[in-house]
Design brief:
By secondary structure, this protein is α+β, with helices and mostly antiparallel strands. The chain has eleven helices and 19 strands.
């Protein structure tokens, strides 16, 4: 009887196992059928149509040198990605290599960040201490011609190819400035662009610390932390983080910067794609020291992407007051997927949201205290900030105008002084 019971249990086990496997196989088959059906009715028919067009052009187009299969495929992929949004693009091998070089923070060019806006290649901001900034290029300027070539139908990729080049080579630009409706002609000599990120660290009056962040690269987090600790060691009572004309950069760097003032594991920003399930919360990785001093973040229309994440996250969590102008509004996440031929796809996969759930894309971060500058003031301030070693007399002789007051920075200083006074009064009354 004992042996019979064991045999029955064993047979029962194999029977149950068979049913489980059968269900798994049937489920996988059904899933594959559904996927195949979805592809066969739409995907494969369109692929066949594309192949037909590709073959006809390759075999019959008048210029045989212009219809190499790889060239045609590259052009088709570029058009497909470009049709989605200004930030999605197909990266050929050369373009992918250029992107990787830029990530390493060094290339030959003029030093401006550009984006497609209203079907025109538009300057997001000039990079600090580069030929582009020295030439007076401003956020919002549209590039109309490069070396005499009309750029009306050019993609940002094509424009980058034209603007970059060997150091020492000159490039002629025709710019349209929408705010003043001016056409400008400038000649710029390319240089090696070293993308510095943290600059001008200083302790101002009344123990107010000042740090300017010009972009977000691989070293920005550590550079910013060192700057903060240096100012703290000098007795800093409050901090101004200047993100004006900062075009952004690496998401991880923005989290490192903002995370210095967050608790470990606290959400700094989150991204979300087409489905709710794709929401991804990005949290501070290290526990912040006790940094209770007040903070002001300066932004303007040239502050984009990672800059907006820092400003938005510190504002939403009441860790900072934001002063200046509404930021650029570039709040989309680009994923990069390398392909087999050494090329890659860069496509928009999600949008950024501040801790309060506010979307940045096409809206920007609005300041708590708005302080706007005219085009002339912005241009003059850019020149002044690029020549910190000049005396007022030298500056006047060189550029023909008196240094102007940085109203946005002065407002940030006044805000911190007011917060110092408020904290002192509260401390004195024991509240």
């Amino acid at each position: 009887m004992y042996g019979v019971a064991i045999m029955i249990k064993r047979n029962l086990f194999f029977f149950v196992l068979f049913l489980v496997l059968a269900n798994l196989i049937f489920g996988a088959y059904q899933l594959s059928q559904r996927r195949t059906a979805s592809f066969s009715s739409d995907y494969y028919s369109n692929i066949s149509h594309f192949g037909q067009v590709l073959r006809i052009i390759h075999e019959n187009y008048v210029d045989a040198d212009a219809v190499d299969y790889e060239q045609l495929i590259d052009a088709a992929l570029e058009g497909m990605l470009r049709s989605l949004d200004p930030h999605s693009q197909y990266l050929t091998r050369d373009k992918f290599t250029s992107l990787q070089e830029e990530t390493q923070q060094q290339y030959g060019g003029i030093g401006i960040q550009i984006e497609m806006r209203d079907n025109r290649v538009t300057v997001v901001s000039p990079i600090a201490n580069t030929p582009g900034e020295a030439a007076g290029i401003l956020p919002g300027d549209q590039i109309v011609r490069v070396d005499g070539e009309n750029t009306e139908r050019y993609s940002t990729d094509r424009m980058v190819d034209l603007l970059r080049g060997e150091p020492g080579e000159a490039v002629d630009l025709t710019l349209f400035r929408p705010k003043t409706e001016e056409m400008l002609e400038v000649t710029i000599v390319r240089e090696i662009i070293e993308l510095e990120s943290v600059r001008d660290t200083a302790l101002l009056e009344d123990g107010i610390g000042y740090i300017r962040v010009t972009q977000f690269g691989e070293r920005t987090g550590s550079e910013f932390e060192s700057a903060v600790e240096r100012l703290e060691g000098e007795g800093m009572r409050g901090l101004i983080i200047d993100l004006r004309n900062n075009p952004g950069g690496l998401l991880s760097a923005s989290v490192d910067v903002a995370g210095l003032f967050f608790e470990r594991g606290e959400m700094v920003v989150y991204t979300q794609g087409r489905d709710r399930e794709t929401r991804h919360e990005i949290k501070a990785r290290t526990r912040a020291r006790d940094r209770e001093y007040p903070i002001v973040v300066l932004i303007n229309s040239g502050s984009a992407s990672a800059s907006e994440i820092v400003a938005g996250s510190l504002r939403d969590t009441r860790r900072a007051v934001v002063v200046g102008e509404t930021s650029f509004g570039k709040g989309s996440v680009q994923s990069i997927e390398p392909l087999r031929r050494g090329d890659a796809l860069r496509y928009t996969s999600a949008y950024y949201y501040t801790p309060a759930g506010v979307a940045i894309h096409n809206k920007g971060v609005a300041p708590d205290i708005e302080v706007t500058l005219t085009i002339e003031e912005t241009a003059r301030l850019l020149q002044q900030r690029n020549r910190p070693d000049m005396s007022p007399e030298e500056f006047r002789e060189r550029f023909g105008f008196e240094p102007v007051e940085d109203k946005q920075l002065q407002t940030a200083v006044d805000v911190l002084k007011g917060l110092f006074l408020y904290a002192g009064l509260n401390h004195g009354t024991g509240s």
